[in-house]
Amino acid sequence: MVFVHSYCEANSSISQTWVDEGISPCFYFTLLPTVLLTIAFFLGTIHCICYQRYGTTMEPKFIPRSRLYGLQQATSALLLVQFLSGMVWQAASGGELPGYVMLYGWFSVLGWAWAIALLRLERRRVLVMDRTRGHSTVLLLFWAVAFSAENLAFVSWYSPHWWWALENQKQQVQFALWLIRYISTGLLFFIGLKAPGLPRRPYMLLINEEERDVEQSAQSLLGRSQENQSTWQDFRKKVRLLVPYMWPRGSILLQLLVLFCLGLLGIERAINVFVPIYYKNIVNELTDGSSWPTVATTVCIYVLLKFMQGGGAGASGFVSNMRSFMWIRVQQYTNRIVQVRLFAHLHSLSLRWHLGRKTGDVLRSIDRGTSSINSLLSYIVFSIFPTIADIVISIIYFITYFNAWFGLIVFVCMTLYLTLTIIITEWRTKYRRDMNQQDNNAKSKAVDSLLNFETVKYYNAESYEVSRFEDAILKYQVSEWKTQASLAFLNQTQNLIIGSGLLAGSLLCAYFVTEGKFQVGDFVLFGTYIIQLYTPLNWFGTYYRMIQNSFIDMESMFKLFEEEEEVKDDINAGNLLYKLGKVEFENVYFSYVNGKEILRDVSFTVLPGQTVALVGQSGSGKSTIIRLLFRFYDVQGGCIRIDGQDISKVKQSSLRAHIGVVPQDTVLFNDTIRDNIRYGRISASDQEVEEAAVAADIHDKIMTFPEGYDTQVGERGLKLSGGEKQRVAIARTILKAPQLILLDEATSALDTQTERNIQASLAKVCAGRTTVVVAHRLSTIIGADQILVVSDGQIAERGRHEELLQKGGLYADMWMKQQRAQDSDSSSDTESKDRKSEKLQPASTSTGHRGH
After folding, report:
1. What is the pLDDT of residue 300?
2. Confidence at residue 474, expressed as pLDDT on a 0 to 100 scale
3. Residue 359 has what pLDDT?
4. Total Cβ atoms within 10 A of residue 191
5. Sheet (strand 659-662) strand order
6. Pairing state of beta strands 786-791 and 611-615?
7. Fold of the domain built from segment(s) 667-737
8. Beta strands of 399-500 (E only): which ranges?
9. Do 379 and 547 meet the contact criterion of CB atoms below 8 Å apart?
10. So what's the pLDDT on residue 226?
11. Are 185 and 79 in contact (CB under 8 A)?
12. Which residues belong to any copy of the ABC transmembrane type-1 domain (predicted)?
């Protein structure tokens, strides 16, 4: 039979907090369940009332299924069983049962039962105005206090009243029960930070279609809005993308450099331990009156270690500088690989993506993304990991050399510091993302305005553009202020925690010195070590923020990497075997957007060496046929063949190597005329470039320029006229010497005389080659072997010029309209000339009279 003789055990009182080198079990097991029950009952009750009054029941379809949530429930239930079984075992073991054991058991059962109820409540109901995700503060606080309390047991490591000695069955059972509590509470706390059983986004965004539409409309080109998404979401996926850049494959020298830098990192950790130890030895030797050689040796070793370590955080020491110097090559390798792969990936994307991109957004994302990878790797490898290692080493050192209280102080401060840093920094993420978006918007407006400089001038809109840019800057500065203000709040919180920990540890160490348990050197050791530890820890928040900011900056770049190629080569694709140049379109269907077909059942054949012209109204699908033949897009139905080979089954590079294109709007690189022509064949010599210019009838014009072929053409070739740009494009195509030529309304925007000159140049290029021409002026394609009239995505008429005129159909109607327009223009020009001569006649007559 069990008797409750007294509340505490014999020879102890609840007023005693420290007994035999440890916390009094009576005090500890009274305080802990009381605090937990208070949090669970009082704060939990307020929490329940708020959820019942201001919350709403979540629809089951929005509640995520999660095994981790099941683990949360199972772990909480296990703790309940543990407390009950602990009381049953204590009662069954016989003897006197102290009152605090019963209180501890029942209070703990009630507290954890209430916590389970809160966990289930949060899964069923949600606050309507809650725009955050995750568990409530009440639950997180409850789990954090429970886990921290179980860590307090380490303080009583040497106390005979606790279970650490494992000398008998009672201590062994108590240790097993404590181990269950320790693992379970830690598991609940860390899983609770992830909140697996709750929606990842605010509930109102899930159920409100209008708000979701607003959110989607605010999506940028590079991906959907991630205002409420954690930076660490898809962390594993992001790390997998980073791994190829972290280890320099293919270079043994760089791999050795990486290993050498990691070795220097380990040396730094050892030096950080020995510096305060030798400083303590100097103080003790000076106070003890040691001999000069002994003191001098210790001082020399200390100074050598400080030289190796540098400033308190090792930021400028010999080892750190050596590591930074060795890391330069690795950093350059990473930066080069990232930029080259991303640049190649962008060039592999489809025309559809490039037509819809925002150049300013893309450039800013590339700049921030590539620079953030280097900083990310550097912060993780050389800042975060070493800081965590220093914290673990310091806790072990303080527990073993001093006592458990110092280890507890360091542990509590570090835990609070890291936890609050992570929580506040996660909260600040939305401000950083918004600032990046506003920065992108401002830069996009600036880039677009400068690229359209002529249009701005045409409409006298300079003040409007400046106003738009200023508005964008103001919006950016609002987001920037929020970011900086939240950063100041974070820094003050960190300083408060660090100052409190330093004060508590210094007072405790000074107390032990006054009691004669420690030497003066021990106080110096503690102060030196703790300040040395707090210095990198003070930077830990910065490291975490920089890592998070790097992830945020990289999100846009990851979105670019995630953009899939629309037109891909088949796995077994071979090279195009060009023979004669026969082009076949067979029942081709194509649409840019689902539900709106551009081409419908288009079929035609271009025989080797023939010229086929495509004519029709704007938007009928003529240019789309050219793009499909060049394989900017893949057809949705039918197939396109060249010499009997389906172009979707051959490599794109081999297909395009045989095709030359002269587009309607020629855009040149901001380079010399020589290099722009040489772009047709990079390996061409200067003589071949000039021969191509002669064939394109632009050589003489180039030679009239002061710098000749070295003349800079300006942004997009704006320093050249339209006819000159077209001739450069023709020369570029001549230099490429393709077997198949595509002309996409190459002369539609030019005057008549320039058009005739360029037509003569094009005739030389197309002689003997298979040619497909998209024409606007019908007079330019009279001599085509076959004319295809495209209407509403179909071939409405086909034949030679004379045949189509005799039919009297669409082509004949287009021809008559253009002829009438041309005659009207000619008559207008004649009348204008007559009016000019009439105005000149009286002037000449009067001049003659004055001459008399």
Report:
1. 92
2. 92
3. 66
4. 19
5. 659-662, 740-744, 770-774, 611-615, 786-791, 794-799
6. parallel
7. Rossmann fold (3.40.50)
8. none
9. yes
10. 43
11. yes
12. 259-549
In whole angstroms, what separates CA 168 from the centre of its chain?
Answer: 57
pLDDT for 312 = 47
Give the separation between CA 680 and CA 727, rounded to whole angstroms: 13
Q: Do residues 63 and 197 make contact, with C-beta atoms less than 8 angstroms apart?
A: yes
Residues of the chain with pLDDT below 70 are: 1-5, 10-12, 15, 62, 94-96, 128-133, 200-246, 311-316, 350-361, 364, 537-538, 540-542, 544-545, 562-563, 565-566, 595, 716, 746-758, 761-762, 764-765, 822-852
| Residue 224 identity | R
Q: Are strands 583-590 and 55-57 parallel, antiparallel or unpaired?
A: unpaired
User: What is the spatial distance between Cα 195 and Cα 222, in angstroms, rounded to a whole number?
Assistant: 28
Q: For the chain, which residues make up each domain, given as ranges?
A: 25-194, 245-562, 575-658+739-825, 667-737
CB 37: neighbour CB atoms within 10 A? Answer: 21
3-state helix, strand, coil in the chain (%, to 5): 65, 10, 25
Tokens of 123: 């899964």
The Cα–Cα gap between 236 and 563 comes to 19
- Please name every residue paired with 604 in a beta bridge, in sequence order, or none if there are none: 585
CA distances from 364 to 371, 378, 436, 439, 453 (A): 11, 22, 9, 9, 21
CA distance 422 to 548: 10
d(CA 425, CA 416): 14
Three-class secondary structure of residue 733 per DSSP: helix
Each residue of 566-586: pLDDT tens digit?
A: 677 777 777 888 888 888 888
* The predicted structure's pLDDT at residue 418: 77
Helix (H) or strand (E) holding 327: helix 318-348
The predicted pLDDT at position 846 comes to: 39
SS3 571: coil
CATH superfamily of 245-562: ABC transporter type 1, transmembrane domain (1.20.1560.10)
CA distances to 262, 334, 743 from 250, rounded to whole Å, are 19, 13, 45
> Could you give the CA distance from residue 204 to residue 129 in angstroms, rounded to a whole number?
8
Residue 253's CB is within 10 A of a number of other CB atoms, namely 8
Residue 109 host element (H or E): helix 99-124
State residue 284's pLDDT score. 82
pLDDT at 239: 67
Nearest to 612 by CA among 590, 653, 581: 581
| Cα-Cα end-to-end distance for the chain | 151
Given a contact cutoff of 8 angstroms between Cβ atoms, the answer to whether 135 and 117 are in contact is no
Same fold, 575-658+739-825 and 667-737: yes
Strands (E), 63-222: 125-127
Q: Which fold has domain 575-658+739-825?
A: Rossmann fold (3.40.50)
* Digit-coded pLDDT (tens) for 86-114: 888 877 776 667 778 888 888 888 888 88
Angle, CA 474 vertex, CA 469 and CA 479 arms, to 5°: 125
